[in-house]
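Assemble and predict.
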Amino acid sequence: MLELKNISFRTPESDAGAQSLADRDIIHNLSFTFESGGFYAITGPNGSGKTTLAKLIMGINEPTSGKIIFNGSDISNLPIHERSNAGIVYGFQHPARFKGMTFRDLLSIAAGSDDEEKLVEIISRVGVCSLDFLDKPVDGKLSGGEIKKIELATVIAKNPKVAIYDEPDTGIDLWTIGPMVELLKREQKENKTTTIVVSHNKAFLEAADTLLLIRDGKIGYSGDLAGAVPILEDLSVCTLNELCQGEDDAQCYR
Amino acid sequence: MLNAIDKQILKEVADLEGIPKGAYNIRKNGELQGREVSANINIETNEKGDGIVIDIKPGTVNESVHIPVILSQAGLHDTVYNTFIVGEGSDVTIVAGCGIHCGGKESEGHSGIHEFQIKADAKVKYVEKHIAIGEGAGRRILNPTTKVFMAENAQAEMELTQLGGVDEAKRFNEAEIGSGSVLLITERVMTEGNQTAESRNEVKLTGTDSKTNIVSRSVIKDNSTQDFYVNLTAVARCYGHIECDAIIMDNGRNQTVPALRALHPDAELTHEASIGKIANDQLMKLMSLGLDYDAAVNRIIQGFLR
């Protein structure tokens, strides 16, 4: 349904200019097929390429090589808005803040309608935002949790075929994470939304049908959570002990 | 008589579909076009004959005054001195504004000098829009001056808007804010082509517990320039904040100079200023919701200037 074919993404090292020798591979020849209606969690160490991969699917990053096929069409060269209108929508880890834009404005753009009844219906469907959010400015005054709830609602309002959420739980209180997971599961079940969540949170990893573990820009593992547990545990063990141990000049090399 | 162009201008500057309800004074090409007073709001030509005095009786609530100016005569440069006396305890809305229609080669201009004496416990909302339309090549010039003197515990909210069409604008705002009074100024200016706009503001917090918030939103397109200066001076225990944001598009140029002067130890003054292009994350967000690049830019600018 959504197929990544030999995707690579390379970026120049920031301090080395555009010299190809100093380019850094963020995603390396990665291939994977997301099946329609599946719930996928992408996890892995910091800097492994999870967000980059998600942005490649949305068209925010352009792959250096490889193809992205969505429902049989090559969307590799489609701009962001065309991918969005084709059914792929992205929830940002750090959502944009606007001066002069309200939640109502964003929701109306996403839903393609500013009909009050329709907007209220979306808010009750999402559940995690209260109705009085509607006329809140989406500016710097919102808390980290509030803006993430708004971000989630705008993605759902677009009725995506593929919903990508980049760390949706950042800044969210513990009491909301459970309802958030339930919401994404409900959307997956009722609307057949293919759901891709980039997360380290156990709640999302447990909710997923398939887990993708990204390491050094490649898929280190794909399968169920049980199979991933030994690898995840291994990742949590530091392999640099020899370097940092000692009483003098101890420092973390990770 | 108001012709179709006049009606269009009235709609744009004062949201009026025709002759307004309540008190009004319509000035066209330097002459009185129509005037209506109400039981509580009197409008008279001033002694010198170069403007009007709008006298709002103490205790007048939920009333409005419209004083639009229409300019459509080539070569005319019109200057008016208007005085608003807002009586104690009143709560009113004043809608001003000037629309220029330029059909020829000669320049047209309007300089409106508005002085507000806002008495104790009064509340006033002042809405001023400036527009310029027409196919003529003449320069359209608008140089508004606003002077505000606030007594105790008064509130004033001023919305000053100029969205395109005006070739040259030099604005000067001056305010003195008395004890317990609050002044909110929001200025929205969009320039394009080779237009220039300058706004100078001198705001003084004179009374104990006086407050002000000065917001400037600028969008500078094409080869236009905008300069914004504000001097905020505090001589009492008070609170003042300045927020200036400018979005530069194309080759626009901007200078933003907020200055704070605390001449009292309990003055609390802050400012934030930013100049830059439209933030990439804002564009990405709107595009990820299905808007193409141009539509996303338009929505961001619309919201920013709202």
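Chain B has a mean pLDDT of 93.
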